[in-house]
Amino acid sequence: MTLRPIILHPDPRLKKVATPVGEVDDTVRKLAEDMLDTMYDAPGIGLAAPQVNVLQRIVVVDCEKGEDAEPNPIVMINPEILQSSESTSVYEEGCLSIPDLFADVTRPAEVDVRWTDLEGAVREAHFDGLWATCVQHEIDHLDGKLFIDYLKPLKRQMMTRKMQKLKRELARKSA
């Protein structure tokens, strides 16, 4: 099990657009495995490669919650949203790059997504509920967008200031 450090906001690397993955090889499979280990350890329900300082279009998600729930990890390589519903839903979102801060975000309630899996096969699926929110949140990361970018400027600035303070505290502890 390899845990990768998660980049914390604010960091310019989180605002970059990730590049598409060419071939699904052992390097990509190892990255996906590390990302799942890191996500579960955090704990979280989604993680994008840019959050672990890899600027490639890979996300991992698993929205099965509850003590008795069987894990249902999905690795998406080069994911793209094919269609979004006109109906919306509001979820209180958080982010492993913005720990312990949450805000309501409105997104399409349902999405159809196409991606490549770890065997190189093209997959498509329909997501709704928390899965739809999570998938959209992670794909946003691939485009350099954070959930706080959906918030009003004052709330976004407040969260960014809290994160700057947290990063200063962490730097002092590790010095």
Topology of helices and strands:
Elements: H1 26-41, E1 46-48, E2 58-61, E3 74-84, E4 88-95, E5 98-108, E6 110-116, E7 122-128, H2 129-142, H3 153-174
Antiparallel strand pairs: 1-2, 2-3, 3-6, 4-5, 6-7
Write a structural description:
The chain is an alpha+beta fold. It has a single domain (12-174), classed as Alpha-Beta Complex (Peptide Deformylase), CATH 3.90.45.10. The protein has 3 helices and 7 strands; from the N terminus they run H-E-E-E-E-E-E-E-H-H. The chain has helices at residues 26-41, 129-142, 153-174, and strands at residues 46-48, 58-61, 74-84, 88-95, 98-108, 110-116, 122-128. A 5-stranded antiparallel sheet has the order 1-2-3-6-7. A two-stranded antiparallel ribbon has the order 4-5. The longest helix has 22 residues, at 153-174. The radius of gyration is 16 Å and the shape is globular. The protein starts with 25 loop residues before the first helix and ends with a helix. The model has no long low-confidence stretch (mean pLDDT 96).
Average pLDDT works out at 96
What best-fitting shape do the alpha-carbon axes yield? globular
How many strands in all?
Answer: 7
What is the string of helix and strand elements?
HEEEEEEEHH
Q: Major sheet, described briefly?
A: 5 strands, antiparallel
How many domain modules?
Answer: 1
